[in-house]
Amino acid sequence: MKNTLFGFIMLMSLASYAQTITVAADQRLDTDFSRFKTFNWTSQVDSELDEGYYFLNDLILKSQVRDAVKSELMGLGYTLDANPDLLVNFRVFDRPTRIKGHEGYGVTYWGDEQYRLISDTTSYDVEAGTLLISLVDREDGAIVWQGFASGLIENDKFIKDESSIHEAVNLIFEEYNQRAREYSKR
Description:
Shape: globular
Number of strands: 10
Low-confidence stretches: 1-18
Largest sheet: 6 strands, mixed
Structural class: alpha+beta
């Protein structure tokens, strides 16, 4: 009886600790994703720190997210290239904000570049603990896809555990539904 009670208490403790990550994605409908084969980072990803009020400024976290995104894209058949088809950017929000048009991303998100959005009229309410990943068609300068994962905050602190970051990025890219190369059976 004591073992059963102890097991039940442990199970309830783990269940209450479990973090729920929710994801959403948006894409430009008129995009031919089959023409994208390569990717690289925007200047914001390559820069050391971002100045801003709404997002987390942590180099270790930035490195973890970058590694997780790179792993997912390469797993989908994309290759890292100096002259890419897709530019990749991401941001981790530690405060709630509303993204509409070019507002809410933060002034350093795209650096000196200006990209067309999926929609100027759609707005996104981003809660604290949200990771945003954006993919830009480098040729026409438009965001073609973006994914969000929220629920990465606990006790008012962003969860910086590497496995949680990889899980969130994986869940985001499950919404992507595109591949650079098809699998072949041999």
